TrEMBL record:
This is Cytochrome c oxidase polypeptide 4. It comes from Rothia dentocariosa. Part of cytochrome c oxidase, its function is unknown. It is found in: Cell membrane. The keyword Cytoplasm does not apply.
Length: 133
């Protein structure tokens, strides 16, 4: 995590002058690139802070050892349901939401009930059916 924190810190430092130069080159008339580059720098700083802060709490990780083996990072990474269709449903609703933002806002309003069904279905997946506990 230490290496990733430094990468995002350097990226954030890089995006600030790039955004300012881009703003001067466009005479600050084009309002898509200049703010986007500055917000990208801000997001990189957020990620760098989070990764460096988390690294102090966790200590040395196998990924920070340059001479480490891949097998050192083996272990439990979490749980994923391979039979679940809810992540696919969430992906489809995200597609509809993005299309609604690009095409018309009423499409986004039509997608909200589908989003609610998909999120509720994914959250309560293990509370009903064959895999209830």
């Amino acid at each position: 995590m230490k290496v990733l924190g430094k990468v995002f810190l350097y990226l954030g430092i890089f995006f600030i002058p790039v955004g300012i130069v881009y703003g001067f080159m466009t005479n600050f008339d084009e309002w898509a690139g200049f703010p986007a580059l500055l917000v990208t720098a801000l997001m990189c700083f957020f990620l760098a802070f989070f990764l460096m802060f988390t690294d102090k709490k966790l200590g040395s990780q196998p990924m920070d050892n340059y001479t480490g083996e891949i097998a050192e990072s083996a272990g439990e990474y979490g749980f994923y349901s391979p039979w679940s269709w809810w992540p696919f449903m969430i992906g489809l609703t995200c597609m509809i939401v993005v299309l609604g933002a690009a095409i018309a806002w009423w499409v986004l309003i039509l997608a909200l009930p589908i989003v609610a069904v998909a999120v509720i279905g994914w959250v309560y997946e293990y509370n009903r059916g064959d895999h209830a506990h």
